[in-house]
Amino acid sequence: MRFFSYIGAIAVALSLSACADESSTTTAVSADAVALQAHLEFLASDDLEGRDTGSRGHEIAAKYIATEFKRLGLEPAGDDGTYFQRIKFRRSFLEENSASFTLNTGDDEISLDYPKEFITGPSAYSEKDDVEAPLVFVGYGLVSETFGINDYEGLDVEGKIVVMVSGRPEDLPSEEGAHLNSSKTKFAAERGAVGIINLHTPAREKVRPFEVSIMYQRAPSVRWLHPNGEPNVAYKNIAASAYVQHEAAEKLFVNAPVALEEIFAQLEAGESPKGFDLGVTARLQRASRHEEISSPNVAAVLPGSDDKLKNEYVLYTAHSDHIGMTKDLSQEDHINNGAMDNASGVSVMLETARMFKESGKQPKRSIMFLSITAEERGLLGADYFAHHPTVPLSQIVANVNLDMPVLLYDFADVIAFGSTHSTLGDTVTQAAGQFGIELSEDPMPEQAIFTRSDHYPFVKKGVPAVFLMTGFTSKTEGEDGGEVWGKFFAEHYHRPSDQPDLPINYEAGVTFTNINFAIGQEIANQVERPRWLPESFFSQLD
Questions:
Q1: Which of 163, 422, 470, 473, by CA, is between 20 and 30 Å from 95?
Q2: In the UniProt record, does the keyword NAD occur (predicted)?
Q3: What is the pLDDT of residue 330?
Q4: CA atoms lying within 13 Å on the CB side of residue 260
Q5: What pLDDT shows up at residue 379?
Q6: Do residues 102 and 200 both lie within one domain?
Q7: Residue numbers in the chain where pLDDT is lower than 50
Q8: Please, are residues 283 and 102 in contact by the beta-carbon 8 Å criterion?
């Protein structure tokens, strides 16, 4: 059954009139529930074994998406005239029993026990690291002119290992704070540090115990490789790292002018601790093993119709990978199918592409559809494309990201992460309103979701972006959309039960797809390209 809104019916009538307003975003074309279901059931089938980056299952998914692009008559936008942008990745493993952490206090040498008292990860750049340097405490390790923060003020960290508490000040706005938190390595490296030690805190222990982090120690890290084979390691001078358990961290402060207990008390009181030399030297050692895998992004373009604007692009993104097979032997089902995460988003993108192709009116700007790999490994496929785009990045006017729409209830509202930072907020409001759907505020700002999906690498490159999620209000009487959404995350997220036998509401998927299509239509046909709002923190990123 196809979805037709009242406004959609009006659009059918208007399209028959020669006097139709060419700037209108309403259109007769609609998403198809059966098509959404067909795409989702294939991409989330057991045969694809969870679509892990570099796996056979993900290769099949990529070929399926490329075939759909070709069937629709979209132009290839990958490398060498193909739909594929093949990416090489380096998977790095920490060699067993290679990690050591020794403190020299001047009077004594103290060793920290791995992994009980500290953990570390492998290097993506070198096979062996051996770094010995003085320790300097730098508080949170943040720098921001906008928020008047400089935790390095008055400190010399050149050739030294910086020690910082995990997290960020509570008074920072969530999205801006999350971005600054992700930039800690950059701040340290720019000031000449050679290593970073993060301190687990008592507050963090209550949320995520240190023992949980230990459970993930054997997992490899993944980085993408530049075409010349260099790993994407921006700060090669940071050659040592460790994450130290909060009680064991007291050993680092034996000569400090301020006791660690007092530092933790300051954090508890909402204060930002000041930095100082710790008066000890540390030696950190590790060995790493590397292997290479490859996995493709899949890209296609629908050319625009306007002589000038066709050289600008509206970019739709949806990640096609998931987390593969579980190693939990206590479960009978070992396949993480990823129906909602993110077979649903890819299905919406494929239907959106079909709608643009069959709408009967070619958009003024070109539309690019990008299926992205390695999102689950740290937004890697999107980050690679942002560094090595197949069209000039300056000509991408906006990114509409489709990641994990939870299509399990008849939603009455949507949340648009990024809508408060650019003129895309007005675009989303208008598009959703066409289908009787309201735009709601972010119900969980503490999660800083705007920095946690594939649009974020493009945001860091200056591209305005918006990322839609189903809201927490349901049209069904007596149903709490937020409760359904929360139950999915509690019981199915990143688990084998995220599979096509969930009670998926494909008619809700139709509405969601229609809204995203209308967003792209508006961006593609408006005279001015989207722009950051001048007061947005993200308008000022380098």
A1: 163
A2: no
A3: 72
A4: 21
A5: 98
A6: yes
A7: 1-27
A8: yes
